[in-house]
Amino acid sequence: xxxxxxxxxxxxxxxxxxxxxxxxxxxxxxxxxxxxxxxxxxxxxxxxxxxxxxxxxxxxxxxxxxxxxxxxxxxxxxxxxxxxxxxxxxxxxxxxxxxxxxxxxxxxxxxxxxxxxxxxxxxxxxxxxxxxxxxxxxxxxxxxxxxxxxxxxxxxxxxxxxxxxxxxxxxxxxxxxxxxxxxxxxxxxxxxxxxxxxxxxxxxxxxxxxxxxxxxxxxxxxxxxxxxxxxxxxxxxxxxxxxxxxxxxxxxxxxxxxxxxxxxxxxxxxxxxxxxxxxxxxxxxxxxxxxxxxxxxxxxxxxxxxxxxxxxxxxxxxxxxxxxxxxxxxxxxxxxxxxxxxxxxxxxxxxxxxxxxxxxxxxxxxxxxxxxxxxxxxxxxxxxxxxxxxxxx
Length: 393
Fold this sequence. Notes:
With 393 residues, the protein is α+β, with helices and mostly antiparallel strands.
């Protein structure tokens, strides 16, 4: 076993510690700690690191060892402190994240802060292949930097459930860590949402409402809308921890994932209640955010409601259909909502019917029936051409 080598210069030691040490003092302290002196000159020392100090890798670690033995109370407080003022490159991200946190708090969510160090036994071999391991971990249960935000949140949920706090709405900002194939590390920032138990307490007018996928999806869509992101879609994707799992799309870009936590994942933390989870990539989210919202006068002209029922292949999702409808290029189309899903052998093999409610409004004038009919024809043409849809009459 070849011992590691580290060099320390006396001027660097003085600069970092703020105290002038003699060469005899430095040799005495490091020798007592088991460091070997491989070479010496008036400027500094070249050292060999003892095998039991695997955390010593850079000159700053040597400075820390010297100051620790000498005593931090021996370091004189300087009369003046030199600092370099930092320049914030992105001045918009902090206000946006603060706005998101305020919105979620207003929706009844509580912010949590979980440990960024995790247990490698919780993760698969594939995940561990790219994980960042601790060099000198203090605990066998905390030996890697977390590759996922989910498990820390589930630990917080399990802790609360064991103490009879059964209705939980959490959100968290945090980083995950991974080793890059080309070297270096990735530290993406995440925004995670968790829902477990009831979203509303028992009331004399209504029964308690259980949290489900549609509740968290609604919160997520409104949160994105508060950031100026209105074109939100969801596409099914595979995931080892979520079942089902849907990719969150802002336009054509993926910004996160949402779904029910898989039973096998819940078993790892002895959580018996269903948990719904959403994970957004903060960098991708901020890239899609629009300028802060502006307010305008409510339109004086009436809205027009039309319904449209389409027969589609069973594997066509509502997200796909909504995307086609919105891509028709009709600025007067305000909202698209799904109000009915119908399946029957009478529709044909592997067919289903989706019924949409469409709302049109022109802020400059009252629209005529002929204009609305033209919009509907354009939408139906797109759906029949791109999804092979049939109009259900």
